[in-house]
Predict the structure.
Amino acid sequence: MSEFLRACRRESTAFTPVWLMRQAGRYQPEYRALRAKYGFVEMCKQPEVAAEVTLLPVTQLGVDAAIIFADILLILEPLGIGFEFTKDDGPRIQKPIRTAADVNGVAQQIDPEASLGYVLQAIRNTRSGLPANVPLIGFAGAPFTLASYVIEGGGSRDYMHTKALMFSDAGAWNALMAKLTAAVASYLNAQVKAGAQALQVFDSWVGCLSPSDYVQYVQPHMRALFRALDASVPVIHFGTGTATVLGEMAKAGGDVIGLDWRIELDRGWASVGPDRGVQGNLDPAVLLAPWAQVEEAAKDVLRRAGGSLLEVPGSTVRVGRVNLPIAGGGYFRQFPYGWTKWGIERVNRVEQKPVTFYTHPWEIDPDQPRIPVGAATRVRHYRGLDRTAQRLARLLADFRFDSVTSMLDLSALKVA
């Protein structure tokens, strides 16, 4: 078993595994060359291209796990729900699902090999190109997040259409969630059969719900999903804005539960319970602060992981996702490729109990060393925060955890 998989299962590791949540992107000349030839969905649908993109960071950065190049919305097509990515790469559902009649039009089940075979073939191609000690992670969107996309018609701030259907027509809501749950389970199990050795379930929007609403409208379907998944591989149950529902998420399932900065790591871990790994939880906006403040914030997370919870393996430290409005002038500077590789190599040199350095790079053209950010400038994905990220990597690499498993996820900052 690879060191990454051992860490996911809260077992001791010989060194610190490293992987990046978005390992392929515009920081790579090879990716930009492919992106100039293909649209995003087109890249996902060409197995040889998706495999090539997935493998790039493994060879370039020496990460300890790969994550397949795909998108959570691909599953909607075989369900009969059309979508497209607009010019700014935002998803748009062509005909939102908002009535019981609309739900009846959603397919009862899918055949992953027939309808999503390109993803499965990309997994096979990637698996054959990976070193034996580098596992491949497959993923899918959770039923609630997928339902929110198809009901809202795209992104949302308040999820009013989603909640309107959920509250007003429980029959239609549960029918839709049941269809999505069955499709996601079938898709993820097919990914495992094709060669995925770990899974991640993205419930990115579930934090908009109250605990009681989560228990009533989502948890039964998530329990059904996790019960249906192949138990031979570890599963990361990922969500944001979920401080009030962490305990219920843990009850739903998953080997690792995601925390974010809205709750202290030790309090979040107490909610999840000692029998699960946790992923959390430095606020990414802290990276914009002076280094002394960044260092203290990171040390606070580490203290909370390694203090009263020292005897419990399975802590994961994650810098979360955020939307940051930046007005006026100012600059974000690119995080050089060499620093990323340096940070990974440095962490891997630390011999200690299980620790996973789990990071999410940004996407910025490396030929553009400084990006001016003004009120009208839109930058979707970044590649790092200059010396702040470098110092943070050094701080975490030098920290001794004893028996704590940890993951750091430098998640994508979205600046509008």
In short: The domain at 70-258 is CATH 3.20.20.210 (TIM Barrel). DSSP finds 17 helices and 15 strands in the chain.
